[in-house]
């Protein structure tokens, strides 16, 4: 019984580390994203220069999905945000691995579409950890 209780208590700890990535690897990997995205801090400091095809990713962790002011998102990602989706490490890692599949799951709409065609199949948890490190 004691072992069962200890195992049950350890589950939240295991779950919280399931998406623990390497922020340094994610920072290095951002070069694959900067053709479309930049990262700007809340005070206006440019952290990573990049394109404007995608929204600025400064402060993405903790932000409502599809909510960067003056950015023209697709309908599906806006619907996910309006339904209450907020970016955390887990959801961001899942999204960048397969944006369309994530949107289908988040919205329940099998016809959901995404403007982001790139799939970051390897190291998505590192990228999410990098964005989380910028939020601290």
List the helices and strands and how they pair.
Elements: H1 2-17, H2 23-29, E1 39-40, E2 46-48, H3 75-82, H4 89-97, H5 99-107, H6 124-135
Antiparallel strand pairs: 1-2
How is this structure best described in words?
Strands 1-2 form a two-stranded antiparallel sheet. The protein is globular, with a radius of gyration of 16 Å. The chain has 136 residues and is mainly alpha-helical. Helix 4 (89-97) crosses helix 5 (99-107). 45% of the residues lie in helices and 4% in strands. The longest helix has 16 residues, at 2-17. The model is unreliable at 1-18 (pLDDT under 50).
Task: Produce a short descriptive summary.
The protein is mostly helical.
Taking all residues together, what is the mean pLDDT? 88
Give the fraction of residues assigned to helices. Answer: 40-55%
Rg is 16 Å
In DSSP terms (H or I, runs of 4 or more residues), the helix count works out at: 6
Contiguous runs where pLDDT drops below 50 for at least 5 residues: 1-18
Q: How far apart, in Å, are the first and last alpha carbons? A: 39 Å
Sum up the overall morphology in one term.
Answer: globular
| Sheet with most strands: strand arrangement | 1-2
Give me the oligomer status.
single chain
In this structure, how is the largest beta sheet organized? 2 strands, antiparallel
The total strand number stands at 2
Strand content: under 5%
Derived structural class: mainly alpha
SSE order: HHEEHHHH
């Amino acid at each position: 019984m004691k072992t069962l209780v200890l195992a049950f208590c350890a589950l939240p700890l295991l779950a919280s580390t399931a998406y623990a990535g390497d922020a340094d690897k994610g920072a290095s990997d951002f070069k694959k994203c900067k053709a479309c995205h930049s990262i700007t801090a809340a005070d206006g400091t440019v952290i990573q220069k990049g394109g404007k095809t995608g929204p600025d990713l400064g402060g993405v962790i903790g932000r409502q999905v599809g909510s960067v002011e003056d950015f023209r998102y697709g309908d599906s990602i806006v619907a996910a945000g309006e339904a209450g989706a907020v970016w955390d490490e887990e959801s961001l890692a899942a999204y960048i691995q397969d944006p369309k599949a994530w949107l289908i799951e988040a919205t329940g709409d099998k016809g959901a579409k995404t403007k982001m065609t790139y799939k970051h199949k390897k190291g998505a948890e590192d990228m999410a950890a990098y964005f989380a490190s910028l939020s601290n």
